[in-house]
Design goal:
Structural class: alpha/beta
Number of domains: 1
CATH architecture: 3-Layer(aba) Sandwich
Oligomer: single chain
Number of helices: 7
Distance between the termini: 21 Å
């Protein structure tokens, strides 16, 4: 393996992980986003190989058969997965790879690739999380209550991660993630050529 890191970010729905990841990527040109593969149809504005790798069901199932995913799931009638080759090629070349993924997917990745850096995005408070979910204005009261209940359960998984970052202010949260990445790069076990540098 090269010196690149696999940085896995997850957290409960509505916590703002997508916004955090976008800012992290725009501020750091040495981090690549892992693009997922899916069997669902592309939505308006989505671009193949940038938004997702849009592939058919047979191709996806062939990739599963050949063990070509770090993780995959079947959700609402479609497959979603993280292609292994893209991620490992980037890491081998010393590039950091960001994977924004749900908790179940992250835990599967951790089993296969425990050397990753697993970061859980926390809400500043449950009240603030509820406000963020409500302010989206896209869901019924019943759906909001369900999401909020799910978020409570999801937060219990924080202890399976390496780091927790509270997303109170976006800029501060991103700086903390950048500090985590820098600290991880300095770990002795990641510096295979440390003696040669002396």
């Amino acid at each position: 393996m090269g010196n690149g890191l696999l940085v896995v970010i997850s957290g409960p729905s509505g916590v703002g992980k997508g916004t955090v990841c976008k800012r992290l990527l725009s501020d750091n040109d040495k981090i690549s986003l892992s693009v997922s593969a899916t069997t669902r149809e592309a939505r308006t504005g989505e671009i193949d190989k940038i938004s997702y790798y849009f592939i058919d069901r047979k191709e996806f199932e062939d990739m599963v058969e050949k063990d070509e995913f770090l993780e995959y799931a079947y959700v609402h009638g479609n497959y979603y997965g993280t292609p292994k080759k893209y991620v490992l090629d980037k890491i081998d070349k010393g590039q950091d790879v960001l994977l924004e993924i749900d908790i179940q997917g992250a835990l599967k990745v951790k089993e296969i690739y425990p050397d990753g850096v697993f970061i859980f995005i926390m809400p500043p408070s449950m009240e603030e999380l509820k406000k963020r979910i409500v302010n989206r204005g896209t869901e019924t009261e019943e759906a909001i209550a369900r999401r909020f209940e799910t978020a409570y359960k999801e937060i219990e998984y924080v202890f399976k991660y390496d780091y927790a970052v509270f997303n109170d202010e976006i800029g501060v949260a991103v700086k903390k993630i950048e500090s985590i990445i820098e600290a991880e790069r300095c770990k002795v076990n990641r510096q295979t050529d440390i003696i040669k540098k002396i």
